[in-house]
Amino acid sequence: MSTEQGNTMFQGPVIVMGVSGSGKSSVGILLAEKLGLPYVEGDELHPKSNVEKMSKGTPLTDEDRWPWLDIIGERLAEGATSGIVITCSALKVIYRDRLRKAAGGKLAFVFLDGSKELLTDRMGHRTGHFMPLSLLETQLATLERPDKEDGVVTVDIDATPEAITDTAIEGLSKLTWS
Ligand SMILES: Nc1ncnc2c1ncn2[C@@H]1O[C@H](COP(=O)(O)OP(=O)(O)OP(=O)(O)O)[C@@H](O)[C@H]1O
Ligand SMILES: O=C(O)[C@H](O)[C@@H](O)[C@H](O)[C@H](O)CO
């Protein structure tokens, strides 16, 4: 498969990452569709206790996140050869390294990057989601940006989901690993 620019479409495992409200689900679904890969919504893999905690406005701890990351890791391992798109906040380096290890090879990350103002606006307009706006502050404080890591495509979220997805696909096709 190839993009309009003639580059080869990425066909490996991809994590769409970023803080709450950055558009992981919106972009992840489109990305999977355009790459022709299966899509997994990481939020649906949280233990019930994590969802209850977040719903009450309590931030997750590392201990809360490890079992969830390991479930995501299992799905990544399953899709490592054929390719898969999974959404996961993956806020810290240690979380991303855990996922890389689980994938067992080259794991690409699409990092959805946006200002606090835009994120606040998007989360404020969203309805029917367990994650309260009050948790955005700790999400941003916890985020360790992945810019200098291997296999990362950073995309500015101040664009339509379609445009963000196309930029991500372009970036994925040009990824190099050291
Ligand atoms: N590029 C965009 N332009 C305008 N609105 C967007 C864009 N991306 C997402 N949205 C909207 O912003 C809100 C947050 O998006 P979404 O739920 O996809 O983010 P998320 O990162 O998956 O959030 P969470 O991790 O909290 O589940 C939704 O209401 C969505 O419709
Ligand atoms: O790592 C975390 O704190 C959590 O995973 C959150 O990021 C949520 O899963 C998600 O973003 C839902 O809004």
Your description of this structure?
This protein is an alpha/beta fold. The chain has a single domain (14-173), classed as Rossmann fold (3-Layer(aba) Sandwich), CATH 3.40.50. Helix content is 44%, strand content 12%. It contains seven helices and five strands; from the N terminus they run E-H-E-H-H-E-H-E-H-H-E-H. It has helices at 24-35, 48-55, 62-78, 93-103, 116-125, 136-142, 161-173, and strands at 13-17, 39-40, 84-87, 108-113, 152-156. It has a five-stranded parallel β-sheet, sandwiched between helices. The radius of gyration is 15 Å and the shape is globular. It starts with 12 loop residues before the first strand and ends in a 5-residue tail after the last helix. D-gluconic acid binds at residues 20, 43, 60, 65, 89, 91, 131, 139.
Summed over residues and divided by their number, the pLDDT gives a mean of 94
CATH homologous superfamily identity: P-loop containing nucleotide triphosphate hydrolases
Sheet with most strands: 5 strands, parallel
Please report the number of helical segments. Answer: 7
CATH class: Alpha Beta
Q: Name the shape in a single word.
A: globular
Ligand inventory reads: adenosine-5'-triphosphate, D-gluconic acid
- The level of helicity is 40-55%
Count of the separate structural domains: 1
| CATH fold-level assignment | Rossmann fold
Low-confidence stretches: none
Order of helices and strands: EHEHHEHEHHEH
Percent of sequence in beta strands: 5-15%
Give the beta-strand count: 5
- Radius of gyration, rounded? 15 Å
CATH architecture name: 3-Layer(aba) Sandwich
Order of neighbouring strands in the sheet with most strands: 2-3-1-4-5
Label the structural class.
alpha/beta
First and last CA, distance = 24 Å
